[in-house]
Amino acid sequence: MADQFDYPARVAAAQALMADRDIDALLLSVGSDLPYLAGYTAMVNERLTMLVLPAAGQGILLVPELEAPRIVVNNTFAVRAWAETDDPVGIVAELMGGASTAAIGDQTWSRFLLRLQTLSAGTQFVQAGHLMAALRLVKEPGEIALLRAAAEAVDRVVPRLGALEFAGRTEIDLSREVRRMTVEEGSDFATFAIVASGPNAASPHHEPAGRVIAEGDSVVVDFGGTVGGYCSDTTRTFHVGEPTDEFVDAYSVLHQAQEAGVAAAAPGVPAQEVDRVTRSVIEQAGYGEFFIHRTGHGIGLDGHEDPYIVEGNTDLLRPGMAFSVEPGIYVPGRFGMRIEDIVVATDDGSARLNLSDRSLHMVQ
Ligand code: ZN
Ligand code: ZN
Ligand code: ZN
User: Fold this and answer.
1) Tens of pLDDT along 197-213?
2) Among 41, 80, 113, 350, which one is most buried in terms of CB atoms within 10 A?
């Protein structure tokens, strides 16, 4: 986690929202909300790490004693280490001091929450996700810089992929190579690499496996990594050998839909409008039934977060929001295609972070 961020300012913003919403305690454990506020990521295991933040005053970060040494001391929180024989859930109940409403991180394990509810019978627990999403929704310039660096790293992979021979390789083999190149090109980690070929390309979240890629396949490659904790996520579609006229026609519709979606994304526009725009281009061309997912999702410390670009989300886009525009066309049993870029809403429109060639990539 980069330490260029103003964590005390983020905590102050969280506390202001808590006061606004009558939340007496904010409890954050595993997931991205804690690193967003504290610059510290809880290990995902059976030893409880939890920030207990009151609506006013200093928060306490409760950590297992053996993990305390990796905390970089700052002035944002007091640290309290618990020993192996302590009862960390009991300590959290004590630190909450009879809060009447506590907001708890959405991904907190039930083994902790259920016991905490028993120990704090007078407390009403609500999801912290709504409150934290409101803080994380609009990215700071430093966050956008990391999203851009992450996008540039995966963009550099695309031309390298286009130079590879696809035919004869398995999806899983190509997926491993995509992950390797994602790191080589500057990502700290590769987080996923979907390689979906032939009929598998009609499954948007296909798990790459042993299918051997062959002449005539379309191949959807959707991959990402992280830089400084911030995620990348891009999709390009490849074709092994000559595509059919039908495929070329569908791809040009998809390309137009993605362009139209990016062009529609601007401050003051409801998130669902971007979905309506991409969908209407695809529907008008007769492929509507084959576009089986929302147009996009927000991105930041999490690969999927608010704002969701989906029918029903009437929230207005604001400058600094980062999200994907990723329409697809999936014809079951035959082929699939998707184009995905991350875009950031600007003062007067939007800017793509992914700039690699989004035309159909012909490969051998
Ligand atoms: Zn996806
Ligand atoms: Zn993706
Ligand atoms: Zn995506």
Assistant:
1) 999 999 999 999 999 99
2) 350
